[in-house]
Amino acid sequence: MLKQQTIELIEKELNTSLTRFAGDVIRGQQIFSSDFNLIKNYTKQKLEHDIHSLDQVSFNNNQTESSLISIINQAPKQAINKITLNIPNLESIQSHCAYLIQRELIQTQKIEAILTNNLLSDWIETGINLHEHQSDNKCSFCDSQISDARWQALKNHFDDSSQNLKKQLIAAKERLTQLINSTKDLNTDIHLFAPSQQLIAKQIVEKVNIELSSVREFLSSHLRLIEQRLENIFLPITSTSTSISTCPLNQLVKLVDDFNRMVEAHNGSIKQQEQEKNRAKEQLRLLKVKGFVDSSDYYQKKESIQTAKQKLQENQTSLAQLISEIQNLEQQKEHKISEMHDESAAAAEINGLLQHYFASNHLSLRATTLHNRSGVAFEVIRDDSVAHNLSEGECSLIAFCYFLAKIKDHTQDMIIYIDDPICSLDS
Fold first, then answer.
1. Rounded to whole angstroms, how far apart are CA atoms 47 and 16?
2. Using one digit for the tens of pLDDT, what is the confidence trace for 278-304?
3. Residues 183, 215: contact at Cβ < 8 Å?
4. How far is CA 171 from CA 94, 157, 223, in A?
5. Where does 88-193 show beta strands of DSSP type E?
């Protein structure tokens, strides 16, 4: 049986090994350095909690330390932005451009020479803008006077309808230029996807860029028509062959949706990867704890300590019971001694009565303990020896003296009747 000191020594050694493992192996592992709370708070108590949880954890053959470290050390995935395409309403653009380039202006009161000469038309229109606010009505180029009739003819040629059309054409040109510049090819880094998804992502991006190229070409062709009409707003463009079907646009929308679903799955896998890393860290920690338990005979030592403690507790309980029994016996002994003392005093009182009142010097009582029985008894002594075969008179005399000794302290308020047999004592 192990002594208390030995049990404490074994338990201390086990606790020391637990504390050292928790500090050196867990807190000292670089693989857990990112888990600040784990590093800071991992104590012997946390280690013992992990040991107790091993019964609820299953390890398979693939969960080796190297495989778990490989998962933990995986490069973190980067988030990918979704595709956001602001494709304009191409049918509306086509309809509006057709209206602008095919619109006819009223040809009355037009100057024929200006109608057929684009450079002259631009030059005169610029001159009008330079001279219309001058008060002297002189030409800044030739210094000739510009007559009112001439001014009116020019205003009739460049009337409000033509100026409004020109403004609309310029606005359409700016809008188309802006749309062309904003409709750019996708420049997504497909290498951010998982290797198994990179080929699919590449094919989608290529198809999207082909469709975007068609959209830009559509816009560019209408831009060219607008620019052509601006060269001579008085000359409508009656035939256009530029068009784009709605089917490729529907295909473009579908391609973008497919790509964005891949992006959602990829971005969702970033959180899954982090969760997988955390699980791997926990598995790695528990795997190390299991290795410690197996190599240190932890369960055997704990069982030995527990068994020794239980046995020690049983022995201490038995010892306590024995001590209690001894104390009870001591108390009984003291009680016997007390009784013995009381009965000895009673024996002396009886002996005094026998000798003083009844002149019986040859009889006396002596208190003694009983063998194998509780209490105190009296022995009758005749001439220093235990008396046997007492006469009836001797028995009555001794009994009467015992009675007088017992009631000695209680006779103050007592009337005693003595029956006739007391008179039948031996002479």
1. 12
2. 888 888 888 888 888 888 888 888 788
3. yes
4. 15, 22, 11
5. none
